[in-house]
Every structure is written in C-alpha cells, then in structure tokens.
Design a protein that fits this description.
Layout (H helix, E strand, L loop, with lengths): L15 H18 L13 E6 L5 H12 L3 E6 L11 H10 L4 E6 L4 H8 L4 E7 L5 H15 L6 E5 L6 H12 L3 E5 L15 E2 L3 H5 L4 E4 L5 H4 L6 H8 L3 H4 L7 E3 L12 H4 L6 H19 L5
Parallel strand pairs: 1-2, 1-3, 3-4, 5-6, 5-8, 6-7, 8-9
Length: 308
C-alpha cells in the first residue's frame, strides 16, 4: 500500500490497514537491529531534530538511535539549554527550526496541542508527537501494539486491562485508540478519582476492582503513578494503592495463561508494579523498549520517504 501520512500527531486518523502495514514495516526494522552492523543508508542526508521541552530517556534515546541507524543526521535540542529558557516564544522557536531546514521534528511538550501547532507552521518538515501534555503519546502506543502482536499474534478479540492513572495518562489515550482499532477489548481500572468522566465515550468500560479487570485478560497494562497524586488526595496511601491496583503476583495470576504484563516506564517499583512482576516471566517491558527503536525507525523511514 502507499503510505499517506506525513506527520504523526495522533493515531485518530489511522485505519486498521495503516496500523497493520506499519507493524509489518516495523518487523523489517527489527531485523536490521539484529544485524552485526546496524547501519543502512535509507535516510542519508536527512536532518532529524529531537525537541524535548520535557525530560525523557526512552523516547528521546530511541528516536536518536532510530535516526542514526537509518543514517540521518540527528540533533538533540532541549529547552533547558536553548533560547526557550531565556524567554523565547514557541513561535520564534518554530521559525528557527524552519530556518535550519530540518526534515523531521520530534517534539515533546507539556502543553496539549504543541505538535499540531508545529505541523501547521512547519510546512516542509514531518512532525512527530513524542507526548503532548495529557493528550497523547502515539509512538508509545505503536510500540505497545507491536510488542503485543509479536507476543500474542492477532489481537482481534484480545482482552486488555489498563490499570492506574488513566485521567493524566497520555499513553492510555493513545493505547485505547490503537488497540481498539486492532480489535482488542479494553477495560480500565483504577481509583475513580483518576478516571475520565465519561469512559464510555472512549469505547471502553471502567471497573473499579482491578481483579475483575484482570480476570482472563491477555494484556495487563500498568500505568506509571505520579506520587503527587497522593499529595493531591487523589489516591489512598501508596501501600493501599499498590494493594488494590498494583501489579502483584496475585493479580497477574488471574489473567489468561498467555497474558503479558506491560508498563510504559519509568517504573515505580513497589507502587504500581512489584519487582517480582516487572522481572517475571510474563513481563515484556524490556521488549517494549527494544520495540521502541524499531517502531521509530519505521516511522522515520515511511514519513521521510526512505528507500531500500
């Protein structure tokens, strides 16, 4: 099929066919990562700029590795060491990026809508959303989808439980879009104070009891919990949260025999996930990290018109 996407701001406009084709391309990219020499000239001469207004380890590093494996020139730009820290407006930053003739701009920002704003202003460059506020994190959803498909095969009819702070999670929003389009049934669980007001509008159901959500699930996805939620009074004590909604061995034992445990990272061990689960046989957390490189390679390759 002909690839029709220049940017990745959200997965909302992606079809099931788009996702399937993209995952197939990701498989090829993963093969490249298994080679002794991890370098191909597919994007030689292209400039990729990583613009992170928020801290990141996995997303930023995986985009950098992805670009370099494909032979693109990758420039890492952070707000703390740029003119943005001196008061430069986002509009002026956009003009600067335009003048530098970047072919791709990867952006993470705490404000919702910044990637979309860049896509409207930077008419030549491809824009990739690496997380905007609580709105979305589409490349994380793609790597989650790819990891799950590699482990479980066809996701049609698969049961997925997303457990934790859904209200503030950009990962959850993008995962719901991606997994539902591939035919999975998604259930949310966590404190009622950390759930969107109308979960039905997302095409999912909410159950407060994590054990009910985990029963027979094929995918157990535990979201990172921010400790300030307790300070804000949105969760009980950390121990109580872990007991009721954390990834414990007893909770995981309720899932289907083939179930996988996922987490977007970074993990708070002993809060949303026990070490015995994070390091256990059902955990695919490190597989997610590896998939992140292959997924971002496929994204850069397809959207920047690479050849092989």
């Amino acid at each position: 099929m002909e690839w029709r996407h220049k940017n990745l701001i959200t997965l909302e406009g992606w079809t099931r066919e788009d996702l399937g084709f993209f995952l197939d391309q990701t498989e090829y990219m993963e093969e490249l990562l298994n080679r002794p020499i991890k370098k191909v000239p597919a994007l030689r001469g292209k400039i990729v700029m990583n613009c992170f207004f928020e801290n990141s380890t996995r997303t930023r590093a995986s985009f950098e590795i992805a670009g370099k494996v494909l032979s693109a020139d990758v420039i890492n730009w952070s707000s703390s060491g740029s003119s943005a820290s001196k008061g430069e407006t986002l509009r002026d930053t956009v003009w600067t990026l335009e003048a530098m003739a970047a072919d791709a701009v990867v952006v993470r920002h705490g404000e919702v809508g910044v990637p979309d704003y860049l896509a409207k202003k930077l008419t030549k460059a491809s824009i990739f959303n690496a997380g905007d506020g609580t709105n979305g994190h589409p490349t994380q959803a793609l790597l989650d989808l790819y990891t799950a498909r590699q482990k479980l095969g066809n996701l049609e009819g698969a049961k997925m439980a997303i457990i934790g702070d859904v209200l503030h999670s950009r990962v959850a929003r993008s995962d719901i879009q991606a997994f539902r389009k591939m035919g999975a049934h998604v259930t949310l669980s966590g404190p009622a104070t950390l759930m969107p007001e109308n979960t039905a509008s997302l095409g999912v159901e909410y159950v407060s009891d994590a054990r009910e959500a985990a029963e027979g699930a094929d995918i157990l996805y535990f979201l990172r919990m921010q400790r300030e939620r307790q300070e804000d009074g949105l969760i009980p004590s950390i121990d109580e949260y872990h007991r009721r909604w954390g990834a414990t061995d007893s909770l995981v034992s309720l899932a289907s025999p083939r179930a996988v445990v996922m987490h977007p990272g970074p993990m708070n061990r002993g809060m949303e996930i026990a070490s015995s689960v994070a390091d256990g046989p059902r955990s695919v957390i490190l597989d997610q990290v590896r998939s992140g490189v292959a997924v971002r390679m496929a994204l850069l390759y397809l959207c920047l018109g690479g050849v092989r």
